[in-house]
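The protein record quoted in full:
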Amino acid sequence: MKKIVGTIAAMALVASAAFADAGIGAWGRGIWAPIAGNGSNVTTFEAASWGPESSNIRTGITIHGDSENIGFAIDMNADGFAPGIGDTAFIWAKPWSWLYVAIGKVQDNAARGDGCFGQFGWWRQCNDGWAGSKGYGMAGEDLTFVRFGNGAGSQAKGAIVKVTPIDGLWIEAALNLGDSTLDTAENVYKNGQYGAGYDIKGIGHIRAQYIGSANAINAAFDLKAVENLTLTVGAKIGLTSGASTTVAAYASYKVAMVTIHALFNGTIATNTFGFEIAAGADVDLGNGVGVNADVRFYNTGATGDKGAVSFMAGVAKGFSNGLIGVAFEGIILSNTNDFYWSVPVRMEYWF
């Protein structure tokens, strides 16, 4: 009898394994500038795209397990040259096809509205610490619509619940339970993200949300009706007296071997209007070789701020699981006429 029970248990284990998948993925990027000029000295630095020049490169891995109804994912990196948890570490379950629940350090990128190109993937040279603390920011991720789990500006440590009652329609909530200042149920639910969207087949994706931690509403639309065109537009409106409103748009259009990019990100606040305008192009030369370039203008809208102009041109060789490239980048601060420049070498991998 014990042998029969053991055999059945073993068969059940094999059967469950047949419908599950576990594995390791990886992504990382590093920028090394063998030579650069910071306005007064010729220097060199190593960094992540998004960090100051004193930051460390991103070397990351993701461990995941997936089945039809339950799974997990852990994102780890060694940004400080010591292992640590990255953006996510969560367990998810789908007890029914229309219900998804995740708990842990979690985010959902499905509705996110991005506009990433050019310098955003190389060295984001307008960062404070390189071109000074000017308050200029480079737009890209969460441009038109903030991902669920990122309403407070970083990944939530809590829960995401997503319901898809009919094809194309989704309703979602993200709650942050990992912040000690949100220690009561009232505060947790008050500061959550709540939204819904509908993917109109062949037309586009419309969505809106309330971001409790910012007391703001965010709405966006992605057009999908035109072949080779990517277009996302959105607005984030603060509901508190004196709060700012952000309007943003990103478009790209592919013609043969060339992809053209354009971006606008404007913030309207009391007596100020700060904005970023950017345009760029990617050219696929074949055999994994690509050229890309962009130029951006920033202005905080503050009295007397003449803004800044940054630009880059680079070439990269891509492989099946990564790339290496080199570029020239520069940024001019109009207020002081300071010129910062770098020759970044970019290395990136994905598995």
About this structure: The helical segments are 2-18, 185-190. Confidence is low (pLDDT under 50) at residues 1-18. DSSP finds two helices and 20 strands in the chain. The first helix runs from residue 2 to 18.
